[in-house]
Specification:
The chain is α+β, with helices and mostly antiparallel strands and 215 residues long. It has nine helices and six strands, in the order βαββααβαααααββα. The protein has helices spanning 16-32, 58-66, 70-87, 103-114, 118-131, 139-148, 153-161, 166-178, 201-214, and strands at residues 3-11, 36-44, 56-57, 98-99, 186-189, 193-196.
Length: 215
């Protein structure tokens, strides 16, 4: 008999460790297979909620936010690239040269969830930013990415050009902030168990199996 697992994956589409964590989690779930009956929901988190439409050079941004040097950032980029390759995600770090506001992307993900295509859109947005170097704050880019995963382009444009799902995104962000989520990825199992960070697949699998055994 399969064990029910409800997974809330709290993340941002411009967070490299979220891309790594998602691929690792999916590898773990594939290894568990039919032993678990999984519902996976993507919850919004904005790394840079105050980022304006002008965006910012990423080296400048990371220097201001974390005080890291260009050399430290280069080392971090290589570590991320290698970890991504290990789980099957391609980081083209030379393509990712700016940081963007992601509020509209999160609104679109809420809508995609209602259409049953949230996971597909999440993957496509991560690829658009980290692999293809696209501006994921651009509504033209967001509509194109939505259409590429089979969502209706006209409806996607309507969602973006209005204020639809803005309240839902803010409410979800505030909910998880109130419950102590201040860094991502944060993977919450059955609303009780937290796995933090872009862990390797075996860490996710071990934690999930322990939770299943307790259930």
């Amino acid at each position: 008999m399969s064990t029910p697992l409800t997974i809330d994956f709290v993340s941002d589409v411009v967070c490299p460790w979220c891309a790594i964590g998602l691929k690792s989690l999916e590898t773990a779930l594939a290894n568990i297979g039919e032993e678990a009956q999984v519902e996976l929901f993507f919850q919004p988190f904005e790394l840079n909620p105050q980022m304006g439409p002008q965006c910012q050079d990423i080296v400048e941004h990371l220097t201001e936010k974390y005080g890291s040097t260009a050399e430290q950032q280069a080392q971090a980029r290589e570590a991320i690239r290698a970890r991504g390759a290990g789980v099957g995600f391609e980081f083209n770090m030379d393509q990712r040269n700016r940081i963007y506001n992601t509020f509209d992307a999160h609104r679109l993900l809420v809508w995609a969830g209602e259409q049953g295509s949230q996971r597909q859109l999440k993957h496509a947005l991560l690829k658009a930013y980290f692999t293809d170097g696209e501006d994921v704050s651009s509504r033209d880019v967001l509509v194109k990415v939505a259409a590429a995963v089979g969502l209706d382009a006209d409806t996607a444009r309507e969602v973006l050009d209005t204020n639809r799902y803005a309240d839902e995104v803010r409410e979800r962000e505030q909910f998880f902030a109130r419950h102590g989520i201040s860094a991502v990825p944060a993977v919450i199992i059955n609303q009780r168990h937290l796995i933090s960070g872009g862990q390797p697949p075996e860490v996710f699998e071990r934690a999930l199996r322990e939770i299943m055994a307790q259930a």
